[in-house]
Amino acid sequence: MALQDGVDGAESRSRRRRRWPWITGGIVVGLIVIGTVTGGGKKDGDAKNPTPSSAAGEPSKSADSSKSVSAAKPKAKPVAETVLSESGSGIKSTAKFKVDGDWDLRYSYDCSAFGMQGNFIVQEGGSPLGALYLNELGKSGADVTHLHDGGTRFLEINSTCSWKISVIDVP
């Protein structure tokens, strides 16, 4: 029986040796199939639009990458623009200015030369009943008023104080 055990042992070893090439081949084929189905690690854009290799060793650019670079440029934000700056004392009508929509009226006044509190009034020009934008009483002051009615306008200032105003067109 020892001889038969030796033959059986050699036969089982040779069967084992013959199985490994089949198992290894099956694994390799399985990996190839999985790689083909999943795209082999390429992105969707790479599989649809493969880039040809360029001559002279220069990197090639695909049409998609140039689009994404140009699309990534941020749009320039509109900038606030000062459309009127005036200063003076007493009563004055300003030049006409145009604002598109929202605008800021920045102002300051100083009544120290007057010796006491003074009045500072700014209203829309052109009508005795024009919109009253500011009416302040004090020795001095400064602030900004936000307005929301665009168009072509001018202002009438009435004050016993020295003053400065500016109109900023806010985009």
Strand and helix order: HHHEEEEEEEE
Helix content: 25-40%
Structural class: alpha+beta
| Shape label | rod-shaped
What is the number of helices? 3
Task: Supply the CATH class of the largest domain.
Answer: Mainly Beta
Poorly predicted runs: none
Beta-sheet strand percentage? Answer: 35-45%
CATH architecture annotation name of the largest domain: Sandwich
- What integer value in Å does the Rg equal? 42 Å
Overall structural domain count: 2
Termini separation comes to 103 Å
The average pLDDT score comes to 79
Work out the number of β strands.
8
CATH topology of the largest domain: Jelly Rolls
* Biggest sheet features: 6 strands, antiparallel
In short:
With 171 residues, the chain is α+β, with helices and mostly antiparallel strands.
What would you note in describing this structure?
The chain crosses the membrane at residues 20-41. This is Secreted protein. Keywords: Membrane, Transmembrane, Transmembrane helix. The protein is of the alpha+beta class and 171 residues long. The chain has two domains: 2-71, no CATH class; 81-169, Jelly Rolls. It has helices spanning 2-38, 44-48, 63-71, and strands at 81-93, 97-99, 103-110, 118-124, 132-138, 140-147, 151-153, 155-169. Strands 1, 3, 4, 5, 6 and 8 form a six-stranded antiparallel beta sheet that branches. Strands 2-7 form a two-stranded antiparallel sheet. β4 (118-124) and β5 (132-138) form a beta hairpin. The protein starts with a helix and ends with a strand. The mean pLDDT is 79.
Outline the secondary-structure elements.
Elements (H helix, E strand, L loop, with lengths): L1 H37 L5 H5 L14 H9 L9 E13 L3 E3 L3 E8 L7 E7 L7 E7 L1 E8 L3 E3 L1 E15 L2
Antiparallel strand pairs: 1-8, 2-7, 3-6, 3-8, 4-5, 4-8
